[in-house]
Amino acid sequence: MLFKKRLLIVDASDSTRTILFKELLLNLPDIDIIACGTAKEALTASKRYDFEIITTGLSLPDMNGYDMITEIRNQQKNRDTPIFVVSGDTTTNIIDPDEDNTNTAITAYFDKAEGHKALVNFICNFLGKDNGLSAKILYVDQSATSAAITTSILDKNNFKYLHIKDGETALNELRMDFEKDHKGSYDVLICDLTLTREMSGFELIQKVRKDLNFDFLTLPILLMTVEPGKDEVTDFTGIFGAGTNDFITKPISEEALVDRIVNLINIKRQNEALTN
């Protein structure tokens, strides 16, 4: 894997950190866990590493938990990382998800009274215990050259995928997949902007959103497009208006592609963890 999953645990209690560390490592042996007892240690780690999840208590010896979260959100690396507050009072300072106060945005609160095993199970479900960073991806691209580059990256990073060359076949695959259990097994859809005359990448995305009714959380979509020319501008309105979660420009680097895929997987799994 190009990236190893990392989890940051912040808790002032030595015993709590030890218990969580051992339980998580037992359930997720391939994960890299960093456990910190102070906000200073946690902020140093968050500046250095990207984390899949950050869990924190609010009573830290050197800083209020909310102030620490604000500083983490102001950092580039973990600006959008899911942060779960473990607290005995889950009704305090809950942030409205529709507000623009992203500097203190908390993904969810976890009631400390439920115990460490429940927290470990929650984290395992969120991260995808059985497949780590691997995911099931539907990749739609008619270009043999582009497909060769992209599939080699997916193979190298242990992502399961199905490569399809046209939009209509992709739609049929998504329909049949959904009909199996009415949930759908694909984590991410990656599609190229230029497909066939019958259906472009934009049109495929619009049909996925409108005809299949897969929203941004149910099936995150990554659009692949070419770098705009010197006198051209990227059509952000068209890209996001069609229903795309994110986009990436060619030529594609391994790091950029994997980073975007991981972010989209997190979007899907965060939604599943919070709704199941």
Total helices: the number is 9
The number of domains: 2
- Radius of gyration, in angstroms, nearest whole number: 20 Å
Low-confidence stretches: 92-103
Element string (H = helix, E = strand): EHEHEHEEHEHEHEHEHEH
Task: Describe the largest sheet.
Answer: 5 strands, parallel
Q: Return the CATH architecture of the largest domain.
A: 3-Layer(aba) Sandwich
Kindly report the average pLDDT value.
Answer: 84
- What is the overall shape? elongated
The number of E-state strands comes to 10
Please give the order of strands in the largest beta sheet: 2-1-3-4-5
For this structure, the CATH topology of the largest domain is Rossmann fold
Name of the top-level CATH class of the largest domain: Alpha Beta
Write the CATH homologous superfamily of the largest domain.
Response regulator
Distance between the termini: 29 Å
- The proportion of strand residues reads 15-25%
Structural class: alpha/beta
What is the percent of helical residues?
Answer: 40-55%
